[in-house]
Amino acid sequence: MNKDSMALIFDDALRVPHAFCWFGAIPAPELDAWTQRAQIQLPPDLLEFWRITGGGDLFESETILRPSVESAPNQCFVIGDDTESFNEALKKEGMAPNLFVFQRGCFLSAIDLPTAKYVTLSSTYAPQSEFKSLEEWYLETLRPEFAPRYGLD
Description:
Layout: H1 7-15, E1 20-22, H2 28-38, H3 44-53, E2 56-58, E3 62-64, H4 83-92, E4 99-104, E5 108-112, E6 117-121, E7 127-131, H5 134-140, H6 142-150
Antiparallel strand pairs: 1-2, 2-3, 3-4, 4-5, 5-6, 6-7
């Protein structure tokens, strides 16, 4: 995976930079150590996205969560925007252990760990829509909702 496989989200960030606040790149060794510590296998495009951006806030209501790693996030990051605490809280509320939430906002999005597919979740944490890649997920979820408001049509 490379930046080109996520071209649309990065193109949108260049076109309307005020709508995107990245938390800050995560060095590959830190991210690799985190995945080993967390004992989790995630899609390569999500890991690459975190290496480049560290996650961040998009539009007025969406957050792509950040793994808990050594490197410090920037000023956009607030407590609770990390994957560990957010997923732990959802599992206590009944979310299945095979789901790993990476995005919150108007809805929740997760990785279905056994299939490595991106999914949106219902209010009861049941997988709804399924996507093959981060780019497809962005194109079919957030972008249709926010593109008109931000002149991204």
